[in-house]
From TrEMBL:
Entries under InterPro entries matching the protein: FA_desaturase_dom (IPR005804), Fatty_acid_desaturase (IPR012171)
Naturally occurring in which organism (per UniProt): Flavobacterium nitrogenifigens
Name of one Pfam family that matches: FA_desaturase
Domain Fatty acid desaturase, residue spans: 67-337
Keywords annotated in UniProt: Membrane, Oxidoreductase, Transmembrane, Transmembrane helix
Listed name of the protein: Linoleoyl-CoA desaturase
Entry keyword annotation includes Transmembrane helix: yes
Amino acid sequence: MKAKYFNKSEEEKLFFSTLKKRVYEQLQGRIISYGDARFWFKGLFWTFVCYLSYIALFSDSISKMSFWLLYVVFQLSGLLIGFSFGHDASHNTAFKNKKANSVLHFLSFLTVGIDPLLWGLRHIRSHHLYANVEGSDVDIDKNPFLRLGPTHTWKPMHKYQVYYAPFVYMFTLLHSVFMSDWVYLFSNEYDWMKRGVPKTELYFRFLLYKMIYFSLVLILPILFSHFDWSFVVLSYFTASAFTSMVFIIMLVGTHFFDGADYPEPEGEFLEHTWAVHQLHTSCDWNADKSWARFLSGGSNCHAAHHLFPNICHTNYSEINSIIEETTKEFKQPYHHKTLFKMMFSHFTHLHKMGNPQN
């Protein structure tokens, strides 16, 4: 990863200091740096749904259709545990204690398949610092199928990416499970991401996590459900594809949307301060809707999360209006759309990136 330097604009620094002051005044006297009752209710709700549907898979009386539907619910609610518990735990905003956060982070990703430690390291050390900066934000690294930013090399196939992208997105989680995690762990290219974490801990946690994950999603259902192994494997792959699409719908447009900034540094310097950089590269969706926050674990309030990652996501409902008002006052960008409009904007962006002139 290439480290960059942010602009030191006094005007932009004043904006963020004013915003922080208003946010902390609004939330004064409340539990904001770790999980409150709302946080635990939501996370435990999805945990209950996830493992209740999982237990039901082993009933002798269920049909194939019921098994498949329950498997989809198991996978999907497992993803929502990651949104509700795991994301905050990776930022140490679930518990006061870092070790407790680490344990919750590990447990929250058990049915997702993405190694929680490696994901957390790249999420915090790369994405949260340099969103949408190629070479510094791992999430915008070049891939062989899609051109997601103007700094990516154009290929003739990209003319059609707006049409084939949904099929690529269906493999998002499977790609992470079977390819990305292994590259992040073993490639020397990502040593910067793993710095400070003992290799024995990385390898042990990786191995333990993958063993538990594959036991949960494949081995136990194959051994103890009354269905043929091929049907269980088919259920796994199709449920993963469905869950991947939900994951993509909720997240991909929060950074890859029409109107987002994809900064190209002048040397080692970025155009804006860190805080304003986050606003130029993030998009909220239905940030004023409680159902959206419940499903996404606050990921729909992307500006609030990037600006205040040390505040538990159940407080974002009160932060959003302050961000909107303060950005208007200081003439800074604030991108907010409905979920449908954000996804439409994402495909508009893909269409533009399919043009070699963009």
